[in-house]
């Protein structure tokens, strides 16, 4: 596919309607936020001394984003784990949030059983599956939802659910300060950028389409900082799964202490890299001044670069702006490669072999 303005070709390639799920990001966020707010979460959950969020892939992104976003909002220690185990310090004073879209994630289920043995407080988030059965069997609280806003039915395209549900649980338990008004503003931001990056907006006026064209034939190297690292991680995952491309993520200022010396060899690899910098005026001033200098060093090594400047006025809104941008870019890149983004054959092969 050469033109991203052909709606007919897009529809023909996107047989699983991944684009539909991307366009429903706002609906996912709203459904999960309202659903959690209507739940009666046991008071004991609010009394925890620390929080552990367990999940894999897209289901872990809520934890990643909270960790990156909420350093100035967190009222109690919060960590996320993508493993079969919970850390040794988990005990009766720990709230463990188990997030698994399908409800069948082995790592998350194993962590949940371990947390239960430690006497931890547990809350689950899933569409059903074995996690829902585990919660019911052990009489544990959770949010079991119907994914009405995910027409592709692909767990990885239900990002809005996992992110919003975790945010809502933490907010309701008073561990993180996020209000209904802020979520309302976030929904407006998502809707704004969903329209701006829509398939109906011509390529010349669509930054998501233009970025996808820049990334074709390249290895995307994503560069973010602070509150945007979680959303950039989601972008990287979607590039892997939707566009089937290799991609990596680094953060400033950490990369400035090592990565710049790793650009020299192998020399023939430089032509394939494309460094995409996510710039924000809301970063720390010391971080902001490192962006142009880092980009200069990359370009002096004959490596292509690009910038996406976040335009939203608040950190939470920038998180969702970048989520929308990354989702559309990964989708358009899959179109340019002539790939239906829905199937994930190697992940499915791997899971089948583990049975």
Automatic annotation (TrEMBL):
Any coiled-coil regions, as ranges: none
Record keywords: Isomerase
Gene Ontology MF term list: carbohydrate derivative binding; glucose-6-phosphate isomerase activity; mannose-6-phosphate isomerase activity
Keyword Isomerase applies: yes
Pfam families: bact-PGI_C
Domain SIS: 41-189
UniProt keyword Magnesium, yes or no: no
Gene Ontology process terms (BP): carbohydrate derivative metabolic process; carbohydrate metabolic process
Family stated for the protein in its record: Belongs to the PGI/PMI family.
Name by which UniProt lists this protein: SIS domain-containing protein
Organism: Candidatus Woesebacteria bacterium RIFCSPHIGHO2_01_FULL_39_28
